[in-house]
Structure formats: C-alpha cells, structure tokens
Input
Amino acid sequence: MKLIFFILISMVSFAVVSQNIAEDKLNLVPNASFELQYAYQIGWFYKGDDFNKAMKYWKSPTGASPDVYNEDTKVPPSWAKYGFGEQSPHTGNGMVGLTLFGCLNGKPHCREYIQIQLLEPLIVGQYYYIEFWTTHLEKSMHINNLGVAFVADPFFLKEDIPLKLDPMVITKKVLSDPNGNWLKISAKFKATKVLDYLIIGNFSPDSLTTAQHAFVDKPLNYAYYYIDDVLLKKIPPLLPKPAQKNDLKRKVFDAGKSIVLENIYFSFDEAELLPRSIEELNKLVAILKKYSTMKIEIQGHTDNVGSQDYNLKLSDERALAVEDFLLSRGISSNRLQHKGYGSSKPLVSNDTEEHRKKNRRVEIFILQK
Output
C-alpha cells in the first residue's frame, strides 16, 4: 500500500518510489542514520547550539533545539512522562526528534529543523531519489507538510523562528500509524539548480498544515516526529559533474607560490573538516605524492568577525586539521608545516558577506618543489 505522496516544486506529483529503483549506490548524505555523535550528548536540549555540539555534521539551522537520541540519552522525567525517549531508532542506535507543529498553541520551539551539507552539490538536470523514515511520538498530533528543502547556503540563525522555504518535496497526506510503525517517505525529483544543503522540517505555517489529535489519553497539542536513515541518491543515467573553475589538479606548483584550496569546508565556527572536503584533500595528497620533494606550509585564514586572538586560534586549528589529514594519508611530517594567520591577510575587503566568505580559506604555500 502506498503510504504517502510527495509534490515537487514543479507541481508534478510522484507516488512512493520502489526500493528496487535503479540508482547510484552512493548516498550523498553524510551520517545518514545519525550514528556519529559527540560525547557532548547527555540529557536534553534547549538550544540549537546544543544539538550542533552533539550531532556530527548535522546542524540546527535556527535557535530551536532538535533532540538527539542514542542508547545513553537521558530524558528528564518531566518529558519522559509524555513518552519521549521510548521510541527505538529505525536502524542502529541514533535518531533525531523534531517538533513540527504547535506555534498557534503556544509551543516553544514549535518549528525544528535539521540541516546538512551534501557530499556534492545537486547537478542541474540530474534525477535523484530521496528517502527517509519517520514516526511520531505516541501522544503527538499527526500532521502533513513534513518536507525536504535544498538551499545553496546554510542557515546559522540564532533566533528560534520558522524557516520560510519552498520545499523540493513535501508530504501531502497526514503522517500517522496507529501502531507506531516507522513510515518510509520517498520521492524522485529532477534538480533545477545547483544546491548544496539539505534541510528537513515543516516549512508551512500551522494555518496551512493539516493536524489531527492522537486517539490516546491526554493527547499533546503539538506534533513531534522522529527522523532516521536519510538517503539521497542519483538515478541513472548519471550526468557528469560540472568542471571546477579552479581545479587543484590544473594548478602550477612552483616554490614561493600560494594556492587556495577552493573546496575545503569546516563546521561553522569550528575546525572540524566536513566530508565534502575529502575530494579536494585527496587531490592534494596525490599532488604531494607526485612531487615527492615538495614541502608546504598550510595556512589558515579567517574574516575579521570576532576578536584577533579568536581568529588566530581558529585559523591555526583549521590549518592543523588539514595537516593531520595529510599525515593520516602517509605524507611525511618533515614536508608539512601549518600556521594560522587569522584575519591579517585578507584577499578582499571584509565589507560584504560574499567578501568575508572569500577571506575564510585555507591555502598552501610552496616552500620547496
């Protein structure tokens, strides 16, 4: 039986896609089943920053607080009495929980979202298959409009506010199962823009969301759903990736030259390399192995937001993260140096966000070829 339908932004509806669909085997979503978590995760969350410190690669795009679940999660008694924490993940030990409805009923954090950078941007004209699993808290209201949006740039909002986005896919029917079973949400779509980030949540206001109370004793007046096992794959035929304007392999590596690593990504305000960086770093590894006598200094740079001391520390830690990756791939330590320069060497003025983004970078300086 078909449990759910999606509607595309082009207004073309698709039924649930068969699991047997021919598709590329690469999942473009890192940490897709929420198994990778930090030791920070204890107790219950009330701020988006808490979620960001607990879940690897996934972020809360707003100040709202998605919940992280694993076998060690401790739910306070005041929330446990409503059934929070009783649900088992669809697979593995990890999952997340989102409040998706209840703003008009006075629910704090009434819209929660999860956001992640894809392993590669969507390719215009490429068909994709998306899938994730969801189930609701037993006492939760049952709603529709659970959707997936793709955006070019991530959100890092401090405010706890709803996101006004046009989802690429959205559930048209109310998501409900009387036995609390996990429901598979799936669809296919054709990419029409180059977009880098995936966001899951309810992007519709309460007034445009269909909501039904649960048939249980003392039902809640808001909607809370668990999310697990997110999948995004290409559907053949596979289109070629667009050629990169500044492909590292095409650079000239001469002593005394600085080269920007164009496709290095870090968690916001952190020194953790994101999975998207691996392809660029592997190119650098191959170059260093090709030129076996080459020595480099890895240089970290920031914009001018924040204190000088903070920016120096962050830029140094990011340069060190790149050095550590190269060491892990067998590059000798006597060929590598790293240094953070903070905001002292901007490429352009820091007068716009676009310029600040350009100044936040990692470069390699060729000490010896």
